[in-house]
């Protein structure tokens, strides 16, 4: 059963074709700048039930496979599947192991049979899905009764310093948009899955200058992918304006970049 189609998003979120291409290009550089991604994924692992021992798990949006390998070590007797929409990420992850299978797929149309997974783990991937209702529906379908869907995502307020600084320069869309936390609450409550944990936490990174931040976003493949973003090269005057505006946020540790992270642990009822 496979359905790897990539439909156009209904509104303000990026086209999944662009998401897949951007992260494929970033596969080689991703791990070198993935400090936040490792911290968030580790926090999500710690939120799993302590005595939980899934026989079959899915790393949804596995990226370079860092947490596929962590899941493989933690659940050594389990059978692991790593899935990502970006072929470049899978090509990077596959030789490093950690899962029994590495497959291309879309979180909104999982190429898995119903009631086949005890755990779906997804760290910093589902924020790129335009139809999160479908993500939850697919998780419900694929999980066995009593199975767990644990995800970390980004919500509104992420990179607000960069967004507000650009707004002072030209008012155009330069920063990725993310759902409000209240939307996650509403959709999870309506999903049929039981909520054990659903919370948001701010993670703040610091950079010596704006260029360091924008370089990292590009290396992660997470630079501006929104519809309505400006095309072509950004002029020197606008860059200088951005730098001047962002300097208003400077702290003793450097220029802050805030990520609003949603952590959720949901369970399919027995």
From TrEMBL:
Q: Hydrolase among the record's keywords?
A: no
Asked if the keyword S-adenosyl-L-methionine belongs to this entry, the reply reads yes
Which catalysed reactions does the entry list for this protein?
A: malonyl-[ACP] + S-adenosyl-L-methionine = malonyl-[ACP] methyl ester + S-adenosyl-L-homocysteine
Q: Which family does it belong to?
A: Belongs to the methyltransferase superfamily.
> In the record, what terms sit under GO molecular function?
carboxyl-O-methyltransferase activity; malonyl-CoA methyltransferase activity; S-adenosylmethionine-dependent methyltransferase activity
Superkingdom of this protein's organism = Bacteria
Q: Which CDD domains match?
A: AdoMet_MTases
Output the PANTHER family linked to this UniProt entry: ARGININE-HYDROXYLASE NDUFAF5, MITOCHONDRIAL
Protein name per Swiss-Prot or TrEMBL: Malonyl-[acyl-carrier protein] O-methyltransferase
Keywords, ordered alphabetically: Biotin biosynthesis, Methyltransferase, S-adenosyl-L-methionine, Transferase
Q: Which NCBIfam families match?
A: BioC (TIGR02072)
> Which residues are in the Methyltransferase type domain?
58-151
- Gene Ontology terms describing biological process: biotin biosynthetic process; methylation
Q: What is the role of this chain?
A: Converts the free carboxyl group of a malonyl-thioester to its methyl ester by transfer of a methyl group from S-adenosyl-L-methionine (SAM). It allows to synthesize pimeloyl-ACP via the fatty acid synthetic pathway.
**What is the enzyme's main class?**
transferase
Among InterPro entries, the record links this protein to: BioC, Malonyl-ACP_OMT, Methyltransf_11, SAM-dependent_MTases_sf
Pathway(s) the chain acts in: Cofactor biosynthesis; biotin biosynthesis
Q: What is its EC number?
A: 2.1.1.197
Q: Which residues form a coiled coil?
A: none
